[in-house]
Amino acid sequence: MWADWFKRNATKVIDFLTRQRNLGLKLCALSASLLLFGAGGVFFEIEYEGNRFKWGLTDEPNLLLATVVIVLGAVGFIIGLIIVTRVHGQEHKLSEIGRVIVVELRGLVDTSDRPLISAIPAKFVGQRIDLVKDVRKFLTGDSAHLGAALIELDYLRRDLQVARGDVSREHVTVIVGGVLQVPLLFHVGTLIDDEGNVVLFDWNRTEGRWNELMVEENKEAFVLEEDEFNLANEVVLAVSASYLVDIDGIKRTFADKPLVHLRLQNPLPNTIWGVQWQNALTQQFLQTVARLGNKRVSIIHLVLAAPASLAIRFGRAYDLRNMPLLRCYQYEKESNPSYPWSIQMATASKPAQRVATQDF
Questions:
Q1: Rounded-to-integer distance, Cα 137 and Cα 151, Å
Q2: Side-chain half-sphere exposure of 143, counting CA atoms within 13 A
Q3: Contact yes or no for 106/135 (Cβ under 8 A)
């Protein structure tokens, strides 16, 4: 309890200390120092003696210098106040007209005691709108209820439009995070692909709280491994980002289909927290899907082991119009087959739908 309180308040202090500084406040502080300096009548005295300079403080006020310093300080202070007033006005206007829409997806872990909206830092300015999509009631027991979960998630586009209202996209930030089955996370990504400024958060399983992705340099790239094939209508694309996919389970489930595998050297959970890193991995995924499309592959069976934020990011990058039909699979270790069902992404003529592996 005390540890949670300390972490929460320490985060607020860090956000305050690392916030973007206001130029007007800096100018006011500098100008106030000049005013005090001039009013006190204490100045530096510089003398030249032979071939060296001598400097120090003098207690005898120089009226001309004092006047110049005071005037500069007063002018700077006034300009600083003008800047502060304008910035404050802009921030107030943005807080009035802006929207911070927080989309929390609940499907596996109950995060209701630590909602995503409570973890959003103060740097996101605007009216905060809590948009929770809880589909747990549809996902308990038999996966036949997946259709109802898909319908509930498909309302997300409409709900985002209602929450945004008549506010222009430039004033809207959509923050998304969730603990949900991977196929549904990928599907959600396709639903928010054109929502403008989207910021992804992830659930930190170690600490049991929401974390924003960090700004950090790219790390390792995917290693590409693939079966040789010339022509194939259907291909399995496996991605090992947070875990190593079950290769034996893939071979049992998709016995007659060639395998293309993108993997990190040592995939581990709770490690991919960098925005740039995720963007680089997404670019590799996108290029691989496009390359398969160029080879006339018509259906991609996607087996994805990745953190929620990366699964959503992949879904946002997937082009429903120009890329092969894609089915994203759910992994169930004790099931036979190991990948018993998938979500087939929407097309121009059909909405997203559940597909049982035994049906093909």
A1: 13
A2: 18
A3: yes
Q: Is 79 exposed, middle or buried (0-12, 13-18, 19+ CB in 10 A)?
A: middle
Question: Any idea how long the chain is?
Answer: 360
By the 8 A CB rule, do 229 and 258 touch? yes
> CA-CA distance, 249 to 32, in Å (whole number)?
70
Q: How far is CA 72 from CA 22, 34, 62, 79, 348, in A?
A: 20, 8, 15, 11, 66
Reported as a pLDDT band with limits 50, 70 and 90, residue 359 is low
48-52, 95-99, 125-129: the lowest-pLDDT one? 48-52
**Neighbour-count burial for 267-300, b at 16+ CB within 10 Å, e otherwise:** beeeebbbbebbebbbeebeebbeebbeeebebb
What are the DSSP E strand ranges found in 73-141?
A: 99-106, 127-134
Q: What is the DSSP secondary structure assignment for residue 359, as one 8-state letter?
A: G
Give the helix/strand (H/E) hosting 138: helix 136-139
The DSSP symbol for 170 reads G
Residue 252 confidence (pLDDT) above 90: yes
At residue 72, what is the residue type?
L
Stated as kind and residue range, the H or E segment containing 179 is: strand 172-179
Segments making up each domain of the chain, as ranges: 20-96, 98-359
Preceding amide of 337 cis, omega within 30: yes
317: pLDDT strictly greater than 90: yes
The residues that bridge with 132 in the sheet, in sequence order, are: 104
Sign of CA dihedral 136, 138, 142, 146: negative
Contact 227, 191 (CB under 8 A): no
